[in-house]
From TrEMBL:
This is Cytochrome c oxidase subunit 2. The keyword Methyltransferase does not apply. The gene is cox2. It is a multi-pass membrane protein. Its cofactor is Cu cation. Binds a copper A center. Keywords: Copper, Electron transport, Membrane, Metal-binding, Mitochondrion, Mitochondrion inner membrane, Respiratory chain, Translocase, Transmembrane, Transmembrane helix, Transport. GO terms for biological process: ATP synthesis coupled electron transport. It comes from Guillardia theta (Cryptophyte). Residues 25-120 form the Cytochrome oxidase subunit II transmembrane region profile domain. The chain crosses the membrane at residues 51-71, 92-116.
């Protein structure tokens, strides 16, 4: 019983942030998750905590059962062994109980899985392309009739070029700018080998496969910079193709995309549509 309380207290302490600000990249000696910025990541963390609760109860009962049987049936404590080899009732109990627990876990788990899959009427679509070893991004919502659109490559900032305040191995020369509090869709693909576009605070980990277009949606609830890394072993510089997403207000996003697209007429109309 004491074990349950210790586990519960530890689980609760995990909730309290050890840092004065929100955690949007990996921190030395970090335990547990980075702070969530999307409803999806909040759901993942909530499910994780629920599962840890179930896990604590199961772990405690199984360990208690094992210790008690090893003690009670030790040859010195139990010199005359019993002849019982099976019992129908106990076998039904230890088959049915775990399956009920599994079903109880499966319901919220599937609900979360399918809600992550849902793409809700996105206001902005970005295309994410993995290369050996950098990411490139296209904003094809604003392309002209010739198919020209806002697009750029995003390389890691090397140690020698780091500015004060930049995060080593995580900051990039061109960040992906997206509006906060807006449904954004990312279409993820690759040109050479399989990469994976992963941002822990957003609850995103989407494989980037050559010849395939994967889709993931995000609704970032606060402004900020969110860091991630390629999450599929893709070659010698796999660890050096980070992702930096900057979530800004819709007004700042419009200003940013206007500069990128050099404010063409066709573009201004699109922005008006977005602002509605
Ligand atoms: Cu790209 Cu690992």
């Amino acid at each position: 019983m004491c074990k349950i309380y210790v586990t519960l207290i530890l689980a609760y302490l995990n909730h309290i942030s050890l840092y004065p600000c929100l955690l949007d990249y990996a921190h030395p000696w970090q335990i547990s998750f980075q702070d969530p910025a999307t409803p999806v990541m909040e759901g993942i963390i909530a499910l994780h905590h629920d599962l840890m609760f179930v896990l604590a109860i199961i772990g405690t009962s199984v360990i208690w059962l094992l210790l008690r049987t090893t003690y009670l049936f030790y040859h010195k404590n139990n010199p005359i062994p019993s002849n019982i080899t099976h019992g129908t009732t106990i076998e039904i109990v230890w088959t049915v109980t775990p399956s009920i627990i599994l079903m109880v876990i499966a319901i919220p788990s599937f609900a979360l899985l399918y809600s992550i899959d849902e793409v809700i009427d996105p206001a902005v679509t970005i295309k994410v392309i993995g290369h050996q070893w950098y990411w490139s991004y296209e904003y094809s919502d604003y392309s002209d009739i010739n198919g020209n659109c806002v697009n750029f490559d995003s390389y890691m900032v090397s140690d020698d070029d780091l500015q004060l305040g930049q995060v080593r191995l995580l900051d990039v020369d061109n960040r992906v700018v997206v509006p906060a509090n807006t449904h954004v869709r990312a279409l993820v693909t690759a040109t050479d080998v399989i990469h994976s576009w992963a941002i822990p605070s957003l609850g995103i980990k989407m494989d980037a496969c050559p010849g395939r277009l994967n889709q993931v949606s995000m609704f970032i609830k606060r402004e900020g910079v969110f860091y991630g890394q390629c999450s599929e072993i893709c070659g010698i510089q796999h660890g050096f193709m980070p992702i930096a997403i900057q979530a800004v207000s819709i007004e700042d996003y419009v200003k940013w995309i206007a500069v990128q697209a050099e404010c063409k007429d066709w573009f201004t109309n699109k922005v008006k549509l977005l602002q509605k």
